[in-house]
Amino acid sequence: MIQVEHLSKRFGDKTAVDDISFRVDEGEILGFLGPNGAGKSTTMRILTGFLPATSGTARVAGYDVFTDSLNVRKQIGYLPENVPLYLDMRVNEYLTFRAQLKGVPRKDRRARIQEALEKCGVVEVQNQIVGTLSKGYRQRVGLADTMVHNPRILILDEPTIGLDPNQIRQVRSLIKELGKKHTILLSTHILPEVEMICGRVIIINNGKLVAMDTPGNLTSKLRGGATIHLEAKGPFRQIKAGLEGIPSVLSVKGEDESAAPSGTRTKTHRFVLETDKGRDVREEVFNAFVENKWVLLGMKKEAVTLEEVFHQITTREAEEAAGPLPPAEGPAPKGGIKETVSGLLSRVKSKGSRA
Amino acid sequence: MTNSITIFKREMISYFYSPIAYIVIAVFLLSSGYFFARILALSQQATLMYSLANTQVILSILAPVITMRLLSEEVKSGTIEMLMTAPVTDFEVVFGKFLAALCLYLVMLAPTLLYVVFLGWVGEPDMGPIISSYIGLALMGSMFVSVGLLMSALTRNQIVAGVLGIVTLVILFYLGFAVSGTEGWYVPVLQYVGTYDHWEPFTKGLVDTKDIIYYVSITVLCLFITIRTLESSKWR
Ligand SMILES: Nc1ncnc2c1ncn2[C@@H]1O[C@H](COP(=O)(O)OP(=O)(O)OP(=O)(O)O)[C@@H](O)[C@H]1O
Ligand SMILES: [Mg+2]
């Protein structure tokens, strides 16, 4: 539905988007992540025909965004990042104007506007002047505008920013529902949101694409392992040694509580296990406890959050850019994160060439 | 074309929600009414010729006020992003806004028809020059509005756009006077470029194609440059 190939955009000597390639398939909800100034909005503006690319191509619904801009614009509903609206119009006047502009046939117009008003929860303010609405309500009017002509593709730049928690939930479920019939590209800084609604995620940093995968794969494969928290009773040293003996446990950290003052009722030790490559060691841990007749009070597995992934990828890139490190093509220094990032990058590349 | 009409309608809504339409109309009626009354009292002639001749300066000031925010405000507030990512062409946007400004200009002139009615009541006006004057006013209006619209495309500050438009139009107005009485190859050129020599014949009942061509070609030229400016603003 959207194909982007080697897209670059320079402003003067600043490169806002640097050789990005990706695609969004029909019916997919793709999350677009990246720190401030990464180039998300710029990419979206190129896709909507508002800005021309410096080099590379992008096709939306089969039309080239540069040579066939008008056809592209007929297919998309776009919510720009600060939701610029005409502040001097009433909400329903504004939506009528937009529906006309987007070529909604006269006979459907009323129904389409009503549906958009209802879905975005702005029915009760439809006669209000846009300029007198709160930020969240303007956001909703903007959303209503993007869907009023029932476009095949929605491009939403931070659609939930400025909304209250209830409305965020509502908008998320709205986007999810829209995602059944429409192809959606959305940018956001709210990572749980991505995990909830996006089928796939792209992370860009300094204009470069640094990761592209499903949120699940990103979190589980990226750092590979998981962290397991244990609470146990028994001989501290033996337990620690026993845990270290389990295959694919990388490290065991523990707090020895046996020396705790006798007033403390529970002498509970806490352990934190770092495990390797997505293998679940909980069964082995449990068996070790049973065999040795130690007491296991609690065990909790903690997956890597997308937030951590995001932080690792984007800050690593920043360090790379700052420090006098070898070029990306050079031999990657040993180190878990570094390896997985370049691994991801090569995966991204292979996907790009397949597309 | 339907898109131009849509944009035209939205601009008209916007004009009448803001004080600008009322202010412009009030200022025009006060000043033209003053000239009309004074000149009628002095000349004792049932003609609009002299008072309409005077309105040109007022219109040079009011037309840019009508157009000043049309494009500059879109850029400044960012609504241009919403507008230009809808399936509309640059031409449709510019033309729709031009139509809206011209329409407000004509609405502003409409009450002066009462003066004509009044003249008909107190005397026997010669309708020929009056009709040709209104044709001239409409043509001049389209030129003034297109100059103002171009200035609005050149800057994102609407006050700057307004001042640029007024200065341009007032200079064009005085160009013909400034060189009259002097000699040189540039005299006919400047007199042709200036607005006054094209306007005066209309007040005397003369509708000359050369004057029509002057107004229409400047209008088309300004609209063309405005469209080009809008296109090129993407490349910055
Ligand atoms: N018109 C412009 N002229 C010059 N530089 C620009 C322009 N627009 C964007 N940039 C620069 O391009 C880079 C990318 O900006 P962009 O708005 O795409 O970031 P973003 O990923 O959307 O960030 P945010 O999360 O803050 O919205 C920034 O460094 C920005 O300063
Ligand atoms: Mg942005």
Structure write-up:
The complex is a heterodimer of chains A (355) and B (236). Chain A is of the alpha/beta class and 355 residues long. Chain A has two domains: 2-221, P-loop containing nucleotide triphosphate hydrolases (Rossmann fold); 224-302, 2-Layer Sandwich (Alpha-Beta Plaits), CATH 3.30.70.2190. In chain A, 40% of the residues lie in helices and 25% in strands. Chain A has helices at 40-47, 69-75, 91-101, 106-119, 135-147, 165-181, 191-197, 215-222, 236-245, 282-292, 306-322, 336-354; strands at 2-11, 14-24, 29-33, 55-60, 63-64, 76-79, 153-157, 183-187, 200-205, 208-213, 227-233, 249-255, 269-275, 295-302. In chain A, the strands form three sheets. Chain A has a six-stranded mixed β-sheet, sandwiched between helices. A four-stranded antiparallel β-sheet of chain A has the order 2-1-4-5, with helices on both faces. In chain A, helix 3 crosses helix 4 and helix 4 (106-119) packs antiparallel against helix 5. Chain B has one domain (2-233). The longest helix of chain B is centred in the middle third of the chain and has 28 residues, at 127-154. The radius of gyration of chain B is 19 Å and the shape is globular. In chain B, helix 4 (69-77) packs parallel to helix 8, helix 8 (127-154) packs across helix 9 and helix 9 packs across helix 10 (186-193). With 236 residues, chain B is mostly helical. The chains are: A alpha/beta (355), B mainly alpha (236). At the A-B interface, helix 2 and helix 3 of A face helix 1 and helix 5 of B. The complex binds adenosine-5'-triphosphate (ATP) and magnesium ion. Magnesium ion is lined by residues 40-41, 81, 157 of chain A.
